[in-house]
Design goal:
The chain is an all-alpha fold. It contains 18 helices and no strands. It is globular, with a radius of gyration of 21 Å. The chain starts with 11 loop residues before the first helix and ends in a 6-residue tail after the last helix.
Length: 454
């Protein structure tokens, strides 16, 4: 029932750094603070932490265990486990990264451009209200920076698992944490930032609503790399003597800590910069590319802080992009028998082609809309709000109904004496996880078509 892959992580640290790297990305840096501000600050934070260590834990363990047990990509993992009626789950887990990578590289390219401008000492032009909109509407510049970011990703992936992904993750993740701590402390020293800190960390349950739970759940899927094929792929590289439960706990902690620090970096400082207006935080991508450069400029040392911040964002984006690309490359290697270089190059063409659509969707192709969305927004909606909940639901059914909970438990217990959170895992994967996946799917579709407003 099991197959062995030649590639593997050197040990637990290698897996944890790579899996945490996949989880820590753009979603943590701007999406988490944006949602936290919108849904009550401390109330959202409290809800997210509870969900991450219950529902998130169950799905992290499931996908990692399925990957290690089968030693294969999601498509073959589902086949090996006899899930013929659920094979769509395996296909979705493999297709989702191929749809995410192109538009993710577009945003990664934006980050490269801003870091380049800060390194040039051109921080002042970044504070102009129209700079960002003019840049993304340009028919050439965003495409150039898309290619730059994609090449950085390819260089790491083409080197393989241990020499590429693991080695880079071990270097970038600690640096990312140090920079995040520095910027957080610097931001908290801004006059008026303490009020923003209180708003962020002290729960006010009068602000709690069902949308707080739905939004926190959606962010958790996005942030922990659940239902993207990444964890199944990385699980297939995990050695048999590495503890799945301990590794999962480390990934949970690392990802949640970075998300909390992202909030500490952004919410108190922007809160102070805007004079205590939480709405200033609810501007989506423009928060990172319009509001923050202005905030850095007002704080002084704008060039230094800007370089540090966008270096941090670039590292976070790269670790996630590498993980997504690796998941897709693994599928090509296993399904078509291609070697790593060929798989990476072919995926590169797919990334550039679809990524160009997302680039030009704000410029020459801005007249084209899908359900009222530009290409980048549509790909984001399709993957995160539609396909990922379906893939997660399929995983829950596979574990609870097809192979049985005992199968995953046995894999978790390989080399271990106990499965400490077994009861939580069983309850979550059997009942709450599939329910939440369905709620996210239905609410997201209803919101896209204007039936409800999230």
């Amino acid at each position: 029932m099991e197959t062995n892959k030649k590639s593997s992580f050197s040990g637990r640290l290698g897996y944890v750094m790579a899996a945490a790297g996949s989880a820590v990305g753009l979603g943590n840096i701007w999406r988490f603070p944006y949602l936290a501000a919108k849904y009550g600050g401390g109330t959202f934070l409290f809800t997210y932490i509870i969900l991450a260590f219950t529902v998130g834990f169950a799905l992290l363990v499931s996908e990692t265990a399925l990957g290690r047990k089968t030693g294969n990509n999601p498509i073959k993992a589902y086949k090996i486990l006899g899930a013929k009626k659920l094979k769509i789950g395996g296909w979705l887990n493999s297709i989702i990264p191929m749809l995410i990578i192109p538009y993710y590289c577009v945003v990664g390219g934006w980050v490269c451009k801003y870091l380049f401008e800060y390194l040039k000492g051109s921080s002042q032009i970044l504070t102009q209200d129209t700079y960002f909109s003019n840049f993304i509407a340009n028919p050439i510049s965003p495409a150039f920076w898309l290619v730059v970011f994609a090449v950085l990703t390819f260089i790491v992936v083409i080197k393989g698992v241990e020499k590429g992904i693991e080695k880079v993750s071990k270097i970038l993740m600690p640096i990312l944490v140090v920079i995040a701590i520095f910027i957080s402390i610097y931001g908290l020293m801004t006059p008026g930032a303490i009020e923003g800190l209180k708003y962020y960390i002290i729960p006010d349950f009068s602000r709690f609503s069902i949308m707080t739970v739905i939004s926190a759940m959606g962010q958790m899927f996005y942030s922990l790399s659940i239902a993207m094929g990444i964890l199944i792929t990385f699980g297939s590289y995990m050695k048999r003597d590495v503890s799945i439960e301990n590794s999962t706990r480390n990934v949970e902690f690392f990802d949640t800590a970075i998300a909390i620090m992202a909030g500490l970096m952004i919410i108190p400082a922007v809160f102070a910069f805007s004079g205590g207006d939480p709405d200033a935080l609810q501007s989506g991508p423009s928060l990172m590319f319009i509001t923050l450069p202005k905030m850095f400029d007002s704080m002084g040392l704008s060039t230094v802080v800007g370089i540090l911040f966008f270096t941090l964002v670039l590292f976070a984006a790269l670790t996630s992009s590498i993980a997504l690309t690796e998941s897709a490359v693994s599928t090509f290697e296993d399904e078509f028998g291609w070697h790593r270089k060929k798989s990476t190059v072919i995926l590169g063409f797919i990334m550039i082609a679809l990524g160009s659509l997302s680039c030009f969707g704000y410029g020459p192709l801005s007249w084209i809309k899908i359900i009222g969305m530009q290409f980048l927004d549509f790909f984001d909606f399709l993957t995160n709000s539609v396909l990922m909940p379906i893939a997660a639901f399929a995983t829950c059914i596979l574990v609870s109904k097809v192979i049985g909970l005992k199968t995953v438990e046995a894999e978790v217990l390989r080399g271990e004496s106990t499965f400490r959170r077994r009861k939580i895992f069983n309850f979550m994967i059997k009942y709450l996880c599939p329910i939440f996946a369905v709620i996210i799917l239905l609410s997201s579709i209803a919101n896209a078509f204007g039936w409800i407003k999230i």
